[in-house]
Design brief:
globular, 20 strands, alpha+beta, single chain, about 30% strand, Purple Acid Phosphatase, chain A, domain 2, 2 domains, about 400 residues, Immunoglobulin-like, disordered N terminus, binds fe (ii) ion, 6 helices, six-stranded mixed sheet
């Protein structure tokens, strides 16, 4: 680098606002975020650097709060512990309140009061938002969520590459900044925030610890790398959703020695195919009116995962999906049913991470109709449709 370039760089850095050079330190205790909603329970997670005796005080609406001790999940090589408490034994569609109580610097403290709902297969509606490929960009999400009203959604989906190349160095500071920002902007203290892993979540030194921060029905954070299961199903009112983990974006020409470890990810996708075969044989959608499929990398069309398509497409073809969701390509598109060999369902691919290319998907289903809207950060409706039956 020439002396001139170095001088220019130093000059440029001086012009940057202080906040851009050194992000403000996060509070010692972040807001709680809801995970793994089912018809009989929900999980509360609370990241904290120094809290002790963490308890979730909770009760159904109209009933007093009772305390449940949270379990400490220490995040090695970071200052953080992500406390965990599962509220269980609930009825479908139960509504309740909770606050998290703890000791901090020798004094009793607590979070504000939040609300939760369990999922209800009998509910008349399900509404959710999908964002993808944020690549740690809080301002992108901040602009997107301005286009949504709080009553527009019951839960959110981070459809991959939202926590990009997470690294241990620096105490995984960016990971916790992401968690803090996404919890706040997606109101995840009140509405579950579901993580779908993208290829960038599988990379770098913190990737193996991400499973300690999220709760999914089959995810075991002690499982060996490659055996951890990020795929899941969810039933919410008239909606049945299947999420598969496409993993890295290796393809058939990726060298075996690449950091993309194609052999490992091919075996992950094969294992998922076995799970998919067994799972779909039981027709898990039940009487759900609408069937949705989501994965970070599209299984069909441009930028798709070849081995995911090879292993999964024959199985997915028989599942009767009404809509397919994906991200990964950084440019939004909607592909009509039947294109590129995809099953008889429309594929919606969200964009990002630049604010000018980012999208937010807004989905609402009732027994009779499915409506979808893909919004840009400036409020432009990029694509929208309502399907009735
Ligand atoms: Fe990606």
């Amino acid at each position: 680098m020439t002396h001139y370039t170095v001088a220019a760089l130093v000059g440029l850095l001086a012009l940057l606002p202080l906040a851009a050079q050194a992000p403000a330190e996060l509070p010692a205790v972040l807001a709680p975020y809801l995970q793994n909603p089912t018809s009989d329970g929900i999980t509360v997670r609370l990241p904290a650097r120094s809290a002790e005796q963490v308890r979730v005080a909770w009760g159904l609406e109209g009933q007093p709060l009772t305390e449940l001790a949270a379990t400490a999940v220490a995040i090695d090589n970071t200052p953080w512990t992500v406390w965990r408490a599962r509220l269980s034994g609930l009825k479908a569609g139960a509504a309740g309140r909770y606050e998290v109580r703890y000791r901090l610097d020798g004094a009793e403290a607590k979070t504000p009061l939040y609300h939760f709902h369990t999922l209800d297969p009998r509910a008349g509606t399900a509404r959710f938002v999908v964002v993808n490929d944020l690549h740690d960009r809080e301002p992108t999400l901040a602009a997107l969520v301005k286009q949504v009203r709080p009553e527009d959604f019951d839960f959110s989906v981070l459809l991959g590459d939202c926590i990009a190349d997470p690294k241990v160095a620096g105490g995984a500071a960016q990971v916790f900044r992401d968690i803090d920002a996404y919890t706040r902007l997606l109101n995840a203290s009140n509405k579950p925030m579901l993580l779908v892993r993208g290829n960038h979540e599988t990379r770098n030194t913190f990737a193996r610890q991400l499973a300690l921060l999220f709760d999914l029905p089959l995810l075991d954070p002690t499982a060996k790398w490659g055996d951890d299961q990020w795929q899941f199903m969810l039933r919410a009112g008239p909606l049945w959703m299947l999420v598969l983990d496409t993993g890295e974006d290796d393809d058939l020409s990726t060298p075996e020695t690449s950091y993309k470890a194609p052999k490992l990810w091919q075996s992950v996708r094969r294992r998922e195919a076995d799970w998919l075969r067994d799972t779909l044989a039981a027709k898990p959608w039940g009487d759900a009116a609408w069937r949705l499929y989501a994965s970070h990398i599209p299984v069909y069309g441009d930028g798709h995962s070849l081995t995911a398509q090879q292993y999964w497409a024959p199985l997915l073809a028989d599942a009767g999906f009404d809509l397919l969701l994906a991200g990964h390509t950084h440019s939004w598109r909607v592909t009509p049913r039947g294109a590129d060999g995809q099953p008889s369902a429309t594929l919606v691919v969200g964009g990002g991470p630049d604010v000018a290319k980012a999208t937010l998907g807004l989905y609402a289903v009732t027994d009779r109709q499915l409506s979808r809207k893909l919004l840009a950060a400036d409020g432009t409706v990029l694509a929208a449709a309502t399907v009735a039956r």
